[in-house]
Amino acid sequence: MASSASKGSAAASSDALDLKRNSDDMAWEFAVCCNPLDLQRVKCKLCGKEMGGGVTRMKQHIAGIKGQVSSCHKSGPLDKFVKPIDPSIPVKKFQQQNISDAIDKDRSYKVGQYLARWIYKKNVPFNAINDDDFKQFCEALGRYGPKWKPPSQHLLRQKMLLQEVERTRELMKPHEIERVATGCSIMTDAWTDKKRRSIMNLCVHCKLGTSFLESKEASADAHTSEYIFNYVLESIDKIGINNVVQIVTDNASNNMGAKSMLKEKFPQIFWTSCATHTLNLIVEAIGKLKQFAPIIIKAKEMTIFIYAHHKTLSLMRFYTRKRDIIRPGVTRFASAFLTLQSLIAKKKELRAMACSDAWEGCKHTRTKKGKSAHATIMSRAFWNGVSLCIKVFEPLVKLLRLADSNGPSMATMYGELLSTKKAIMAAVENSEKNYLMIIQAMDTKMKGRLDSPLHIAAFMLNPKYSYADSTIFSDVEVVAAFMEVMEQFYHDDDEKQNIVLNIDFTRFKKKEGMFRKVAATKAISNANFDAADWWSTYGLQTLALQNMAIKILNLTTSSSGCERNWSIFEMVDAKRRNRLDIVRRDNLVYIQFNGRCIDKRMKLSSATDVLLGEDASRAQDWIVEGAYVDEEIDPVTGLSYSIIDEAMGATEAMELRRSARVRELHEVEEFVSDDDNESDHEIDLDDDIEYESDDDGVMATKDAEDEDDGAQP
Fold it and tell me: Are 43 and 34 in contact (CB under 8 A)?
């Protein structure tokens, strides 16, 4: 009997370990019931002490409130344990420590010094301190309290990384839902990393923005049309054939070959050329015209001369208050446009520099290139030409911003393209001899790329254009393009084609039913008008046409999202992290790229100019001579011949040995050093100057004639 009683007591004691009251009180996280027959008898999980009085007594025990029960020797205040760690959960403000504000401020500053030391030593960008994720980490650390130990490298590289990927994937669920509702575009591009590995990148664009899906190493494979087609085919299977509306790539020949293969396999999916790539080709062609090429060449020669010598560079920065005249952009065209704008904005400062005694006393300005730069700066014709370049390029810049944005651009691309042509004609004062060559250059490069049937159909389905000009509905080219797109969208579905063309389209054209509503007309004039949203509201009586319109108008026209992703690849795959395997690298890129997309969506908009580059890699031809040489691409490997040459060491084997280089150096007639004595006209750059930063936005164009201050012709 005694034995059985003892066994029963032991079982009861064992069960009591898991007993707790049916309560949401957070104190039960640190207490358990000792006796199932006496629920007021509790045991502290921290120190093991048993006591009566229930959870109230337990709170006094953990909080160290004396009088009723002894304090727990393994705990501090109760708030330290029950306060949620998640910084997204608000907590009540608690009283500060019983010290003066001055001492508390000093202690906080010392904590900041430890953080600053880590930032300085590890080369962390200063603006990282403003990152929301870092602020959440600080809040979570403060809630935890002292003695927190950071996770190990293994934990960061394995478990935590995979958990963050899953968390990011959950946050990207709205994108997956949007793809089903309004369709999506697949974007793919190739890139070579610092290890010379060829990587195929895959991104998906929907109405909510661009998201990174995956990448694939393709170093051992030739980037043929069939290879690209098979890669795109795999992505279509993952996303869903019914959710993919179009594929967007650049205009390379292997991509165009894959386009033909896709049309045979999935004729209902469109394949579109990248608008950003096409616009850069357009501007490059315009820049080579005789009206603009001499001006751009002179501007480059002048900036190259200034940046070639530290004396002239220091002089320029003194007069411009340490503002550079070179403005790097995301493309060569963007760099050219931003730099020309910068030159116009600093015209007076540059002329003052060229007329100064320090300029006259500098030995470099007395050379042939120096005299040419001086003549350029003082030339009225040059500044008039720069002003004309900006006037012509400005409408194209607006179009490039539209194409390079993260939102849907198909709805307005063709309409804005027509407006761009009109703006360019106005910029040259409708002079036929001036605008005819420009328009011809545009039409040559955009043929079949920006004026495809898909672009024209989206133009007609956007009531912003078609309701403003009713002749669009009777334009043969526009209606024919719409019919072609409709037949491809509803491929082999004669019934849907009949409904769209003979019923729904007629109601839309004649403004019948909901299209006749006054609110439908007023919505078009709203500043934040969205054509796809307009169709989702007023197209309910034309469901077949509504479905087609929503999915087309929500499309992008550019694959620049893939190109923006390469900058993240470069940061992740930096030299100090080049031991990352492909899977871990993809996980980091997935978190960073999609995390930025989520942050932008939460902030609704970004004030960053999409044309501005993060470095000067696309502005080298404004700084040094011969910076860019058009390279041929090996059709088998997909790599440029310069990369192949570097890998094989062919040029290196042909370089002169040291003795030959030294002999060649001594044979030079004149060797000039920047350290030679200059004239007495020196500029003290240590003077106190109120320096101002460059405005990131695009400045309004001003005619050079308005600032005609006696310049030499």
Answer: yes
Q: What confidence tier does 297 reach under pLDDT thresholds 50, 70, 90?
A: very high
DSSP state of 633: B
Question: What's the pLDDT tens digit per position in 421-460?
Answer: 999 999 988 888 888 999 999 999 999 899 999 999 999 9
The neighbouring-strand residues paired with 273 are: 249
- How is the beta sheet containing 38-44 ordered, strand by strand? 31-35, 38-44, 50-51
> Which pLDDT value is given to residue 5?
44
Lowest mean pLDDT among 210-219, 327-336, 476-485, 662-671: 662-671
Selection from 220, 91, 215, 76 nearest residue 590 by Cα: 215
**Residues belonging to the chain:** 713
- The pTM (predicted TM-score) of the whole model is 0.73
Handedness of CA 154, 155, 156, 160 (dihedral sign): positive
Residue 644 has pLDDT above 70, yes or no: no
Cα angle 218, 224, 230 (rounded to 5 degrees) comes to 70
612 φ, ψ to 5°? -75, 135
Model pLDDT for residues 212-244, shown as the tens digit of each residue: 888 888 878 888 899 999 999 999 999 999 999
Number of Cα atoms under 13 Å in the Cβ half of residue 82: 15
Of 110, 210, 176, nearest to 601 by C-alpha is 210
Structure tokens at 614: 């993060």
Evaluated on CA atoms 184, 524, 419, 330, the torsion sign reads negative
* Residues 325, 313 contacting (CB under 8 angstroms): no
> What is the C-alpha separation between 269 and 265, in angstroms, rounded?
9
The pLDDT mean for the chain works out to: 80
Q: What are phi and psi of 242, to 5 degrees?
A: -75, -15
- Report the C-alpha dihedral over residues 588, 594, 599, 603, rounded to 10 degrees: 160
List the structure tokens of 467. 């309701």
Q: Residue 208 has which token pair?
A: 């909510």
H/E segment holding residue 200: strand 198-206
- Euclidean distance between CA atoms 217 and 231, whole angstroms: 11
What does the block give as tokens for 709?
């201050």
